[in-house]
Amino acid sequence: MASYDFDLFTLGAGSGGVSGSRRAASYGATVGICEDSRVGGTCVIRGCVPKKLLVYGAHFAEDFADAAGYGWTVGETKFDWPTLIANKNRETDRLNGIYKKLLSDSGVKLYEKRGKIIDPHTVEVGGERFTTRRILIATGARPVAPEIPGIEHVISSNEALDLPELPKRIAIVGGGYIAVEFAGIFAALGSEVTQVIRGEKVLRGFDEDARDALTEALVRHGIQIRNHTEIARIDKGPGGLTLMPESGTPIEADVVLYATGREPNTRARASLYRANTEGIGLENVGIATDKFGAIPVDEWSQTSVPSIYAVGDVTNRLNLTPVAIAEARALAETLFNDNPTSFDPTDVPTAVFSQPPVATVGLTEAEARVTVGAVDIYRSRFRPMKHTLTGREERTMMKLVVDRATDRVLGCHIVGADAPEIIQGLAIALKCGATKKQFDQTVGIHPTAAEEFVTMRDKLPDPVAKAAE
Ligand code: FAD
User: Fold this and answer.
1) How far is CA 124 from the centre of its chain?
2) CA of 14 to the centre of ligand 1 (A)
3) Gap from CA of 12 to ligand 1 centroid (Å)
């Protein structure tokens, strides 16, 4: 049998790469990993973690204002953006150190250099070549923006997390989850926020009721939404940046953030608004990417080359940290623990940390109608109890999508405070195949918003029946 320097060599030490490498090493594999930026990857360094810390920071503005309704007199408050950023950086530095220690404690050899595939059993890392029985590609994704004139003046989510000062006016282009999260952060902290979207409302792909509820909430939170707008050009002048739409009035801003999508880190791209990014050597082994640059894999995360595997955002399946981790761990189980495991992508819960947050698990109403046909819809919209005393115009929306034939709950959707915390438990119920009857038999916790999920009794009329009225 051929002998190799490593049993597994991983490109990219983010969520997937670190967890898969550690799990493989725990089963006795010799594992090497390389990282060309910072160990921890997108989630820890420039994604979930720093973003959530900023969301926490932003919430205080509302909390101070709401305190008055509960009898508090809050003295003068003052916010200092550089302090928040410095403290956030201290935390990401700490996590970066923890991730490195986790790797070394597991016996994984870390190379803090860029890696490239040379052949099905060889990688090159910072000029040095290693042979390896198997290769795991876990190189994640990077922000992309359209190649319009003036795009060099904009920032991506990477830079938004490290701006030297809080912008007075920020334009955020995009309607996806990253865009609405940053819109919420900057608006709460006092920036004038304009969000530019192509369609009618934010969060394409989410349940329509959730999209409506969040789009309305963003407006209530002072965010100006410019819908049906395509930006043709960005001009820089002495007074700041001007976004020139294809039609309609220009938008003035001090900072323009593009959150219009991410593409897998696979191929070289010279024409991004960022510096050149080299490829990872897929051409050396004949792995073809799809039109988004993603690496096609089977349910075992295996590519078209038998010794090469890929997990996480680079495969563009479900681009979430817990999914990258689960895919990577399943792979390590399969390859190194004689325990064939594939990740089940159904009923994956997900949250958007907008203000208010959105959380969802299972099918949207539209998806369910296509998948099973007849569905029963239960929906509740109410004013959260907390705001009866604050006077704040806030609404919560909760919705259940139920298969009429089997009574199985197919989807749960929430827009409102604590949505991400509530949905996790509901995801377990869906994974267990819970029926609406079992939801109804569950005793609620009073007084909470979550109890609404076990007390919704009235179905909405069918759309056809409604149209016939
Ligand atoms: P990554 O974590 O991106 O890791 C890939 C690593 O590979 C990177 O460190 C990169 O530097 C390195 N690399 C790339 N090329 C090479 C090379 N040639 N050689 C060596 N190293 C290389 N997900 C959630 O679940 N919840 C959230 O709240 C959430 N919020 C997010 C907020 C933002 C702003 C962003 C951008 C993403 C967010 N995500 C969130 C998505 C989440 O971060 C990703 O799904 C997750 O990090 C994917 O893990 P990964 O291992 O595939 O890639």
Assistant:
1) 31
2) 6
3) 9
- CATH number belonging to the domain at 6-142+263-336, selected among 3.40.50.880, 3.30.300.20, 3.40.640.10, 3.50.50.60: 3.50.50.60
| CATH class of this structure's domain 151-260 | alpha beta
CB 364 within 8 A of CB 440: no
Residue of the CA atom closest to atom 45 of ligand 1 = 320
Per-residue pLDDT tens listing for the chain (469 residues):
679 999 999 999 999 999 999 999 999 999 999 999 999 999 999 999 999 999 999 999 999 999 999 999 999 999 999 999 999 999 999 999 999 999 999 999 999 999 999 999 999 999 999 999 999 999 999 999 999 999 999 999 999 999 999 999 999 999 999 999 999 999 999 999 999 999 999 999 999 999 999 999 999 999 999 999 999 999 999 999 999 999 999 999 999 999 999 999 998 764 444 444 678 999 999 999 999 999 999 999 999 999 999 999 999 999 999 999 999 999 999 999 999 999 999 999 999 999 999 999 999 999 999 999 999 999 999 999 999 999 999 999 999 999 999 999 999 999 999 999 999 999 999 999 999 999 999 999 999 999 999 999 999 999 865 555 4
pTM for the whole structure: 0.96
CA angle 87, 222, 207 (to 5 degrees): 90
- Please, which contacts does 208-212 make with residues 24 or more away whose CB atoms are closer than 8 Å? 208/364, 208/365, 208/366, 209/365, 209/379, 209/397, 209/399, 209/413, 210/358, 210/360, 210/397, 210/399, 210/413, 210/414, 210/415
CATH 3.30.390.30 spans which residues of the chain? 350-458
- Which protein residues touch ligand 1 with a CB less than 6 Å away? 11-17, 34-37, 41-43, 47-48, 51, 114-115, 138-140, 157, 178, 265, 280, 312-314, 319-322, 324
One-letter amino acid identity for 50? P
Task: Identify the CATH number of the domain defined by range 350-458.
Answer: 3.30.390.30
Is 228 part of the annotated catalytic residue set? no
